[in-house]
Design a protein that fits this description.
With about 210 residues, the chain is of the alpha/beta class. About 40% of the residues lie in helices and about 20% in strands.
Length: about 210
């Protein structure tokens, strides 16, 4: 059975055709590795650090920009809270659908849990309504069997800012509704033969296949 990840839902939201090509037909198009390199290094480093590994050797291979990003993350008030999990897979069932993915980290203080997401690029335009926020908060809420004290923090490393989202009864219901709606819609997705080129196609790695 398919388990829907945030990337799958975001891809579908952005272009159902792309969803079909990527996740139904499993057609993977090459992308520039450099686009992800910086984020990968910081995430790997954060994971080793939180798990208590020695990171000295790793630090020597970072470039100057990465060192600054790492220092920003290390000094972040949420990153400094009590470690619970890092690079952790979470999943749960909402309605008839499995959802889940891998979170950067979970930390906590006396009463609250925080799902952390470190961004070396931009944070989502609408963080409260991003599928990543919805999926991870729903999964953690189910896992811990609570709604209060579940939080999501986008850590914007470039601007050294945090965006905190708190789960509430109302948000939980809204999130469940949105997830069920989009998953139901995905069930009927099909490849389109008659496509119109649009602005979003300009930077899409699938355009050679579509047109
Ligand atoms: S090229 Fe355009 S239509 Fe094709 S997958 Fe990309 S965004 Fe969708």
């Amino acid at each position: 059975m398919t388990s829907y990840s945030p990337n799958m839902l975001k891809t579908y939201q952005n272009c159902p055709q792309k969803y079909c090509l990527k996740y139904e037909q499993k057609l993977i198009m090459p992308q520039k590795a450099s686009l992800f390199e910086k984020g990968k290094n910081i995430h790997a480093l954060a994971n080793y650090y939180l798990k208590g590994d020695n990171i000295d050797k790793f630090l020597t291979v970072l470039n100057q920009e990465e060192v600054l990003l790492w220092e920003t993350l290390k000094n972040n008030i949420y990153f400094q809270k009590q470690y619970v999990e890092s690079e952790y897979n979470l999943s749960c069932k909402i309605g008839d659908f499995w959802i889940g993915g891998r979170i950067d980290a979970i930390v906590k203080d006396e009463e609250k849990y925080y799902i952390l997401d470190y961004k070396t690029g931009a944070i989502p335009k609408e963080p409260e309504n991003d599928y990543q926020t919805m999926i991870y908060m729903l999964c953690l809420s189910k896992k811990l069997n609570r709604i209060d004290g579940i939080n999501f923090v986008y850590i914007d490393l470039k601007n050294n800012q945090n965006h905190l989202i708190e789960l509430s009864d109302e948000k939980l219901r809204e999130y469940e509704k949105s997830i069920i709606k989009i998953c139901n819609s995905i069930k009927n997705v099909q490849i389109q033969e008659d496509l119109k080129f649009s602005k979003k196609c300009d930077f899409c790695e699938y355009k050679r296949v579509c047109f």
